[in-house]
Amino acid sequence: MNRKLTLILVLSLGLVLNVCTPETKNTETNMLAALALAANAPSQAAFLETYSQIAFQNYSDAYTDVVALRQKVTAFTAKASPTLSELNEIKTYWRKARRSYLQTEIFRFSQGPIDNPALTGGVEIEPLVNAWPLDEGYIDTVVLTGTITKQGLIDANEGDCATGTCPDGDSAKNISVGWHAIEYLLWGADAQNNFTPGNTITQSNFTTANGSGNAQAKRSAYLLYSTEILENHLLQLKNAWDPSLSTSYVSKFKTSSTSFENVLRGIARFSGGEWGGERMTGVFGGEQEEEHSCFSDNTKADFYYDAKGLDNLFNGTYTGSQTINGYGLKNLLGNESSYIKERIVTAELFCLNEFTEDVSLNQTCNSSIVSSRFDRMIATVNVSGSATENADYNLFRYQIQPAVQEIAKALQRSAASFGVSIGDDGLVLE
Question: How far is residue 131's CA from residue 243's CA, in Å, rounded to a whole number?
């Protein structure tokens, strides 16, 4: 509908309805809301177009990065005597690939291919890609005693964990594939009060020597299979957003009347439930095992790039192998726009300086952002830390995490102006 014509209709309708009886007030409100939504429709369409472009390019980059990781793993696991430098190189490639993947997490909970099995052949992909926490005992058992096949690892994912091996005695599921399974295979356990990444795994834990039955050969096979599985699932997600494929999801997404509502609800749920909820609040007790990437100590990067993913959609921009400049949420959210922008900036206050495999990746830190090792910082809840660690914990606990929660609340408020109600379902709002 033409914007000027819509405005005239809204004003005209308002003049007519204002002379009606009180009983017509609800009708007036509903009709005005409907016309306002019609006026916003072109803007919503522009945003959904940008959203779909960013999704395709972001998943394309994540897939490309995992292909590079898998290529390194293929060469590494084919060797009888791999070296420590080769193992560290794979760890670096894992970290680099996480950067692009983490930015895609903002697409979760929006009825899209990542967690809607109806769009992916009845299989929900997200638990096969990024599920956590991990039952280390299960993986150790498979490596030491089980038979490893690619399909077997997929089938075992999210099965009930064996008695006595559930993390912290809870009822977690087996996680046999995905980012965190690969992470554990590369770094090993990160024991409580061990303030470095997991250091129980070395190059000697991988080999093709002595046949396929020993634990080292099984670990090599497990690492290769799980990386290949991750590559395949990211290709599936990339293809789902590919506008050149007639069977892709993206055409339906851009034309569906519910897509904009689903996106607002999904971003709110991810911000207030997963990212700023379970993941961040889980470490308030000081337990290292509650870190999202506890084996590699990559958790600061997890949180930073989750924020970057929202930043991309907010501004309608993306920088990767291709650059996108389009229509962002900031153009739609009215008075809440500046409020959300400020909180995204706060959510990004992490210095990415925990890389031990390639120190060239470390950033230079300053006192206004979290610069401490994340596991040392959260441990200050239970043990005394340095002044910097204490200050960093306070910044995380009392500024960063609340800012992410406030993003979800602001989206709840914003959604109402579009006739969308976002309840608290799936959110962990404080």
Answer: 28
